[in-house]
Amino acid sequence: MTTLDKLFFNNTFFALGDTFYSALHPQPIKNPYLVSASEKVAELIGLDVGELTSRHFIEYFSGQKLLPGSQPLAMVYSGHQFGSYNPRLGDGRAMLLGEVEGPHGRYDLTIKGAGMTPYSRFGDGRAVLRSSIREYLCSEAMTGLGIPTTRALCVIGGEDKIARETLEPSAVIVRVAESHIRFGSFEWFYYQNDHVSLKKLADYVIERHYSYLKDQKEKYALFYAEVVKRTAHMIAQWQAVGFAHGVMNTDNMSILGQTFDYGPYGFLDDFEPGFICNHSDDAGRYAFNQQPQIGLWNLNALAHVLTPLVDKSVLVDILKGYEKEFVDQYTALFCAKLGFGGILPGDAVLIQNWLELLASEKVDYTNCMRSLCETDLASKVIPVRNYFRNTNAFDLWFERYHSRLQQQSLADSDRQQQMKQVNPKFILRNYLAQHAIEKAQHQRDFSEVNRLLNLLYTPFAEHPGMEAYANAPPDSGKHLEISCSS
Questions:
Q1: Any long-range contacts for 367-373 (C-beta under 8 Å, 24+ apart)?
Q2: CA-based angle 247:109:443, to the nearest 5?
Q3: Backbone angles phi, psi at 237, to 5 degrees
Q4: Range 75-78 contact pairs with CB under 8 angstroms and sequence separation of 24 or more
Q5: Strand 105-112 to strand 94-102: parallel, antiparallel, or no bridges (unpaired)?
Q6: Is 443 exposed, middle or buried (0-12, 13-18, 19+ CB in 10 A)?
């Protein structure tokens, strides 16, 4: 482990040249103070956790000082936003400080909320405390759930007042990621008719992140196939755990198949397939049950801009494999959630009927799935039955479920334990995040932020004494309005 001034930067993206970015410095926020910092993420990049409480830590990551070896820049990209192409986006409030070589590989360090950039358009380049806490907590919560994601090192608050729906306190979040390159990065060069830079970007991504493909004759096609597979698997994990991203624009899609750019996300409380977590999404384009299809749409947009490198017919054939990748992964995940030791014919129908039953009763998704783990066939204890008003419909489904479980030689106790490893007891419910945000904003009390952070690192554990955090929200805590604004 090392100190802040000894972090080793290897800034390969900066070396690509200014066609890919604009070099600039962060603009410091006023009177910065530490809200929370993650020891786990510090260890990931090889930073001594003792540095997290130092004054230098706040100075470096609030924009007051530059880390030795860093070369700050704002990345350029474009993207499809709600289905319409926006020709010039880029980092409007984020700055990549550089790439740190640590014990677990190379990671980008990015300050989000670091001030205006050439891509800010009409924005102020700032982030607010509310959205920064939400991204910080969800990045680490997704890690605890085992879902590929960018990470978050810390949130630092400031005394600037930022105009959003109301005046809100400012903040920055330090995002840590294997890469910040997105589908929109490729779209930018294609629509600029800069195929030289498009190829250069593809070669860079393959060399840095898919190096096992670099000597293959069809490396660009194989690269695209990997992106298709990773994206399908990531979205299958979202669906299995009940996570809605909210803004699946192509500029928010990671080239590594990692959950990226947390905005108006939400985890399901009641099981509502058409759940819309972003109150700006009037048409429901990014509703929970639309995410698999939107993943396909976005991958098609990426395929289009890769046509200078790969024959269109090859890209079409690769994209045709998306649905199977998603369905196979989702089915495997859900079979594990139901306690099946493998996949048998008829399981997909049983899963679909279960989801239809959950939707018809609008039961709490996480708690219902966790309760199903307690099913004891030997003693005929079925606590999950209490979640259903229409017990006849449940009993009909459960009879088939019971028969399916009897087709495997697994003791109840072993099955229960295995199910609890894939059905979380705790998720980052919006009302919990909002409570932590309000304490931070109004009282400068960050205890709830840190409590949630530590709890959500191990969401499958029982955590005696923390049962209240597993409760379904009160009616006032459901359908909280969450917007894109940050």
A1: 367/470, 367/472, 368/271, 369/337, 369/423, 370/420, 370/423, 370/424, 370/425, 370/470, 372/338, 372/339, 372/419, 372/423, 373/339, 373/416, 373/419, 373/420, 373/423
A2: 70
A3: -65, -40
A4: 75/13, 75/20, 75/21, 75/180, 75/181, 75/185, 76/20, 76/21, 76/22, 76/119, 76/185, 76/188, 77/182, 77/184, 77/185, 77/187, 77/188, 77/251, 78/184, 78/187, 78/188, 78/191, 78/251
A5: antiparallel
A6: exposed
Residues 6 or more apart whose CB falls under 8 angstroms from that of 424 comprise 145, 241, 366, 370, 459, 460
251 is catalytic: yes
- How do strand 33-37 and strand 79-81 relate by DSSP bridges? unpaired
pTM (global) more than 0.85: yes
Angle, CA 353 vertex, CA 351 and CA 355 arms, to 5°? 70
From CA 192, how far away is CA 186, in angstroms rounded?
10
Distance CA 407, CA 353 (A): 19
- β-sheet bridge partners, residue 36: 155
Candidates 108, 160, 251, 364; catalytic one: 251
Between CA 443 and CA 331 the distance in angstroms is 45
Q: For residue 307, give the amino acid letter.
A: T
Q: Which of 135, 260, 139, 176 is nearest to 7 (CA)?
A: 176
Give me Rg for the CA atoms of the chain. Answer: 23
Q: Which two tokens stand for residue 46?
A: 């090889």
User: What's the 3-state SS for 243-307?
Assistant: EECCCCCHHHCECCCCECCCCCCEECCECCCCCCCECCCCCCCCCHHHHHHHHHHHHHHHHHHCC
- Looking at residue 362, the DSSP 8-state letter turns out to be T
Is the alpha carbon torsion for 331, 266, 255, 178 positive or negative?
negative
* pLDDT digit string (tens) for the chain, length 486 residues: 899 999 999 999 999 999 999 999 999 999 999 999 999 999 999 999 999 999 999 999 999 999 999 999 999 999 999 999 999 899 999 999 999 999 999 999 999 999 999 999 888 999 999 999 999 999 999 999 999 999 999 999 999 999 888 899 999 999 999 999 999 999 999 999 999 999 999 999 999 999 999 999 999 999 999 999 999 999 999 999 999 999 999 999 999 999 999 999 999 999 999 999 998 898 999 999 999 999 999 999 999 999 999 999 999 999 999 999 999 999 999 999 999 989 999 999 999 999 999 999 999 999 999 999 999 998 899 999 999 999 999 999 999 999 999 999 889 999 999 999 999 999 999 999 999 999 999 999 999 999 999 999 999 999 999 999 999 998 877 777 676 555
